[in-house]
Amino acid sequence: MDTFAEVVRSRKGDDKIGLRFEDRQWTWDEVTQESADRAAALTATVPEPAERRRHIGVLLENVPDFVFWIGAGALAGAVVVGINASRSGREIADDIRQADVDFVITESRLAHLVDGTDHGLPADRILDIDSSEYAQFLEPYRARTCPRRFRRPTTSHFCSSVPGRRDGRRP
User: Fold this and answer.
1) What would the CATH number be for the domain defined by 4-144?
2) What is the bridge-based pairing of β-strands 79-82 and 55-59?
């Protein structure tokens, strides 16, 4: 296997436990399906820019959706940008703009870090996994098949080795 998307796809049909979180668990097949659902929703609702891949900002704690969106990014050929929740709202807005993030996934306890900041995204491009809007966003794309064709997936990580300064590269 040459890409992470191939690794994700290879787990389709695998009934071994792939993810545990609190009192829930998902088989690898279910993890793959959750990722495929999100990849389908992403590609249907966020146009791919002509000059680059889609960039998905993930502002989540260690929750199952973080795993599902990493898989979705791989299956959609999108760049997953991990957003550091330890930064201020202003710094996060700057990271979102500079990384050309097209879409942000967050959760209710972190949403305040992007609410009302100058990140440049329309409100419908920021989704809170704890909201009913998120469930409605995913519903039309449930039970989608894993895409067979994809572009080489990548991730982009920002670390703050020096407070207030990013160390990251745009693919």
Assistant:
1) 3.40.50.980
2) parallel
